[in-house]
Amino acid sequence: MSSIRPQHLVTPPAMNFNSSQQMWLHAMRLRTLPLSVAGILVGNALAWRLDAFHWQIALLSLSTAMLLQIVANLANDYGDGMNQADAQDRQGPVRITASGLVTPARMLCVVLLACALTIVSGLALLGATWQIHGQINWSFWIALGSLSLVAALAYTVGAKPYGYRSLGDLAVLIFFGFVAVLGAVMLQVNHLQSLKHYPLYFASLAIGLWSVAVLNLNNMRDIESDARHGKITVAVRLGLRRAVRYQQTLILVASLSWFAVLYDSLLSTPAYLLMGLGLWFLWRQLSFPWLQASAVRYTQELQKLSRDVLIQVLVFTGFLTYFSN
Predict the structure, then answer these.
(1) Rounded to a whole number, what is the distance in angstroms from the first to the last CA of the chain?
(2) pLDDT in tens, 2-28
(3) Cα distance between residue 211 and residue 75, in whole Å
(4) Helix, strand, or coil here: 107?
């Protein structure tokens, strides 16, 4: 691994929580939710453009996606704590299992409760889809939902978590990008003909790669700690210098894919405005001083990257729904 590292890495102080509610909200990492809904929002906006949109499906797909993300966050806290990957030298936010604020058994119970809520939301989504369309491929959607839930858990939980074997980036690309966008459209339209609309794939790739960039940024921040504790992420395999180039490539390809979506979806003044916003976002990311940034800056940039992606998605969704009327 490269010896280059983010500067001024210091162990963050233990966090004092004023209440158990604050502690659990911290463990859920609600700031990660924007990325979990970005693909769903884009998928529903593109379904609107295809004249197939139902609010019940949209809202239940959003709630299911957010609950899946919360499951992943809680399972990550539990799994990394059990695997001792969240040690004292970790640079990110405090993890409540590793810090001893909750016992592993209690955290596991909360993870299972979150799984149960996710299943309820997912079944409600399928029920609403069946009621609206009069038919639904139950076996396909239950299998896909089960696979999504297993993926959320198995990232860091189990004897061989795939997040420790450099497979997290691929899983994020698939589930945050293609499953979220294409799944949202298929639920709204309820037939495979909708998948012939090529911007769906550019949108899936853009959201998926942006999500991978967020994960890679997190892994660059924790690169030395992860390497010491056997968590072999893509960033650990590459070393920091090449991980930075990988990060820039992710952002560039995602932005180009997004521009293809804008070009197809909004062939008018709004498209140019959105492309301008996208170019500003691209410039800000490519000009960021990755090799000189501190761990605190990395954490701040994580939040900014997620925020900027959501802003682009929300503006796109607003323009597309308005100009499609």
Answers:
(1) 53
(2) 444 444 333 344 456 667 888 888 888
(3) 18
(4) helix
- Region of residue 166 (phi > 0: left; psi between -120 and 50: alpha; otherwise: beta): left
Angle between helix 104-133 and helix 20-28 axes, rounded to 10 deg: 60
DSSP per-residue codes, 146-188: HHHHHHHHHTTSSSS-GGGBT-HHHHHIIIIIIIHHHHHHHHH
- Residue 233: other Cβ atoms inside 10 A: 24
Sign of CA dihedral 37, 309, 201, 244: negative
The phi, psi pair for 91, rounded to 5°, reads -100, -15
Judge contact between 214 and 306, C-beta under 8 A: yes
Residues near 133 by beta carbon (within 8 Å), at least 6 away in sequence: 190
Helices (H), the chain: 20-28, 33-49, 55-82, 104-133, 138-154, 168-172, 180-189, 199-221, 223-228, 234-238, 240-265, 269-286, 295-323
| pLDDT tens profile 209-232 | 999 999 999 899 888 888 888 889
CA dihedral of residues 198, 199, 201, 206 (deg, nearest 10): 160
CB 119 within 8 A of CB 68: no
Residue 5 in contact with residue 294, Cβ under 8 Å?
A: no
